[in-house]
Structure formats: structure tokens, C-alpha cells
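re the bet — no i am not wrong, look at it urself. input seq straight from the record:
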Amino acid sequence: MGENIVAHPDFILYHIGETPGNHGVGFLVKKYLAKHIDGFHGVSERIALLNLKLPDYKDPWTIIQIYSPTEQADMETIGQFYQDLNKALQTYAHKNIIVMGDFNGQIGERQRDEDAIIGPYTYSSKPRSRNGKMLMDFAMENNLTILNTVFKKKKNRMWTWLSPDGKSKNQIDFILTNKHKFFPSINVINNLNFNTNHRMVRAELNSSQPKNPRPKISRENIKINKHLIGEIANSLNSKLKDYKYETKDADTQDKYNWLENKIATTTKEHSKRKENLYNRMTEKTVNLLNQRAVLISAKNTGKNRKEIARISKEIKENIRKDRRQHRMETIERHIRQTGGIKKAYKELTNKKEWIVKMKDREEKRSEENW
């Protein structure tokens, strides 16, 4: 027994174990990946690591194969196992992580605040076992997602273990990762020609690293009226208060995407909301609006109230003139561009009439007949 690495014609076998027939873990690596192996690390007969530098991935991968103590083991044994597992992660693991194997525990249904580690598809609604709780604590602590629960499968394609009497089925073999979006699918393999009451779990990893998608922001040119800049800045300043919390575990690219998204969406929100109003106004009208805003926020005196009334009357008259001017300019622009005014009217129309409910009409008709 002990620790061995054996190169076969088609694969490389790594194994570590001290107890024949009971414990032991290892890896079977296809020969074409041999040049990408960065090393094996045997932690115990229950934990082994493989570090790989896959050609089309920016960062190396760490794959950890485990065999957890059973539910019948004492707390000291299971506690030591997870202590060794956490230490192995801290000591040897790279940025991309997979932890897989027989965890000998059932996780039950997803509970509150577990969306980041458990997907919506679990096999059993039975209560979470002791080992299941230990597994969940480990996943939460290391920001790992249980891949088995991410993809929707029929129940008969989810169980991984069959009891010796053939009466009970359960899901106790799992694959965990901190990069679940890199995996397009996961499956159990039926009828594996091997003497075991477990079904093998197979996850597919994308052949190359998916690119970080840029936020889907409309790239239309947004004309920002100078009077909106201060308002946009205040709104953005409020949203940026969440920056540290929302990007705590993000890399540089994701942080950049977050900032770009906030700036673009905030600018668009404000420009869309007020562009029609400000674009129709002359600078004189906007200045009058600002003067009135200052007066309204000042001390409420008789003199101020009279001045507010005077300015309001002037604003009303100016807005009427500005609208008329904007309307004429819009029609002239469309006549020059298309020779017609249909699109001009469509652009100028900023309201919709709703149809009165048929029920109201019927009730009114009934009252008239009565």
C-alpha cells in the first residue's frame, strides 16, 4: 500500500492508502494530460490532491479526492477529517477548486441563506444528517457550490448509493467547486462494470475558460444635459456605498464590470427620465426653475412667496414657448430627413389613452335601460 504513482499506456494512476479493502483515494489521469500535471499530494488515506495546469485556463486547477468517515464514526474522527481537508485547501490549493468523493452524508433540502452553495435540485427531503451538516459547513466556509444540486435531473438520475439490501437509495457522493459556471453538466453513470454499490458521478468541465461576460448595457449614445450631472453624481455616490460589500470576493475584471454597470445604468436612468423635459427647455427656463428651487428651500417669508409666484408665472409662459419651439424643430428635422411628418408625430407623442373597461360601459348601459 502506501503512496504510488504508476504510468500505464493510456493513463496515470495515483493512489494513497494504508488499510487494504477499507480506505484509500486516488486519481486516474488520461495520458494526454500528463504534461499538465503539476503534482500529487497525499494528505491521508482519506484525502489526496491533484494540481493541474490546463492549457486553456488562466489559473491552475486543484482537484481533491476524498473519502469521508461514515455517520457511525465518532465526532473526533469526522472533525479531524474536515480539519485535514481545510488544511490541505489552505496549503496546496490553487484558485480553481474541485472537491469530490464519498461524503457519507445526506444534505436534505436547501435551507435559508444557502443559495450560494446549494442549487434548487436536491434528491431527498429527509432531514440533514450529521455528516451532511459538516459538509455544508465546509462548503460555506470555502465558498464551494455542490454541483449535483445545480442541474435539474429526474430523481432516478440523482441517487449515488444503494443500500446492501437494495431497498434504500441516497445521494452521498458529491462534486463541489468554486467555479460552478465553468461546468455545463453533471451526471451519474449507470451500470458501471465494477463491484460497488455506488454510482459514479461525472461532471463535464468546459474545454476552455469561459470569458467573463461584460454587462449587457445598451451602447446607445446618451446625451446628458449639463443640469443633470449633479443629480447623476449624487445618485451614483449613493449606489457606490455597496461597492465593497458586493465585490468582496470578486476579481479585478468583475469589479470593473460592476463599476461600469453602475455608472452606465445610473446615467441612463436619469437621462431617460428627464431628457425630454430638459431638451425642450431653453437655458433661460432651466435657470428660472433653479431659482425657484432655491427660493422654495429658503425661509418661508411673504417676500419669498411673492417671488415664487412671479417666477412660476414666468416659467409657465416660457415652457409653453419652449414646447412650441421644440415641436417645430422636430417636425422640420423629420421633413428634412424623410420628407414626411409621421415619425415626427410619433416622437412627439408621449402619452397613451387607455380604453375604458367594458364592464363600466355595460353597467352604464344597464342603468340607462333601467
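see?? The longest helix spans residues 302-338. told u. also Residues 352-364, 366-370 have pLDDT under 50 and may be disordered. so pay up
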